[in-house]
Amino acid sequence: MDSFSRRKMLMTGGALGAAGALAAASPAHARSLWTWSPSASVAGTGAGVDPEWVWDEEADPVLASVIDRGDVPRVNTLLKRWTRNDQPLPDGLPADLKEFMEHARQMPTWAEKAKLDRAAQFSKTKGIYVGALYGLGSGLMSTAIPREARAVYYSKGGADMKDRIAKTARLGYDIGDLDAYLPQGSMIVTAVKTRMVHAAVRHLLPQSPGWSQTSGTQKIPISQADIMVTWHSLATFVMRRMKEWGVRVSTADSDAYLHVWQVSAHMLGVADEYIPASWDAANAQSKQVLDPILAHSTEGEALTNVLLGIVAELDAGLTRPLISAFTRYTLGGDVGDMIGLSKQPVLEKLISTAWPLLVAFREGLVPLPAVPAVLWTLEEALRRFVLLFLAEGQPIAIDIPDVNRPS
Ligand code: HEM
């Protein structure tokens, strides 16, 4: 991190102690009643229990025990060697963890290879849109999801938020990798490791004073409802925006894209009864779990600055107003305000008129449009961001934490 953004982070970090105490006094954010029916899920049936009260009963006790036994450093060393989907688990893992992982690495019986292949082709062809939407859209939206922002802020990874925030956006992008779920790919490994990290965080965060003082009524973080909130901020949001922009998405492509995300939710430990079976079901669930909880949080604003700092590092901050305007256009002004994005009325108007034209041109639907030069600059900045920030070509290095962010 350069000295500018480090200073900025320290300043924002310093403000958090006081703000945390304030947040503790304010009521928890409203969440609507869970009425989404399991009949709309990939399971087609289920008990219909509110996922707000469901965590991960297979992973959580195992990871809690691994942490309490002091096994995390040894396990992390062994797990570094496990990188490919088809690779046997490393020798020497504790028996309980090995048993869990052998089970967790199994793909769901309903996974369809043809759809997964098609989804990968689709994500590749639409790489720039998908990448920009994950990185700037979903990545920044996550900072308006208070529970996620706080969990990330107060957990170990919060100490290096740039690295941390890059990883969730990268995971979205890696899901679209051509090899993702093929034997030589690494998405099964990444998903199982992430599931274990989330289980570790559930054990650790309740011990964090910073988290406990700001978590409201939630006593254990990362419920299945929370995971689906993030899922919608990635999958549902990206598909919706691509369609709104006029990106050509056939029904087969959109089904395939949904499928790769359904499989990924399952691999992250979400019960099949909460995974939407169709985009209609996904949109309905998103409306219920994501829309009402978007809100400002001090931790989220700190994360926003880190993410925008990453973009600024690519071009010394030249395009920051442009990126701010593009993100406000993508997320909507309300969310933009929530996360503290500066208003850019002129640029925002320009982008909302010209961006769909540029997309139509890239999709081969119209001849070269007369768009202001600044739009080409924007497109180039997005391309650079996607290439450098997201597509690093290496699987994300994921370690199980055994402590929270040092206070
Ligand atoms: C860790 C992705 C949902 C909080 C991770 C990591 C990934 C990831 C890839 C590993 C990164 C690392 O090693 O630093 C996802 C995806 C989600 C999801 C794809 C949903 C589809 C959530 C939710 C929360 C959350 C809902 C909180 C409400 C965290 C935290 C860590 C983590 C606190 C650990 C950071 C650390 O201390 O290292 N997640 N996540 N995640 N995630 Fe998630």
Automatic annotation (TrEMBL):
Residues 1-30 form the signal peptide. The keyword Transcription regulation does not apply. InterPro entries: Lcp-like (IPR037473), MPAB/Lcp_cat_dom (IPR018713), TAT_signal (IPR006311). One of its GO terms (molecular function) is oxidoreductase activity. It is an enzyme of class 1 (oxidoreductase). Its EC number is 1.-.-.-. It comes from the Bacteria. PROSITE patterns: TAT. Residues 133-343 form the ER-bound oxygenase mpaB/mpaB'/Rubber oxygenase catalytic domain. This is Oxygenase MpaB family protein. It comes from Streptomyces argenteolus.
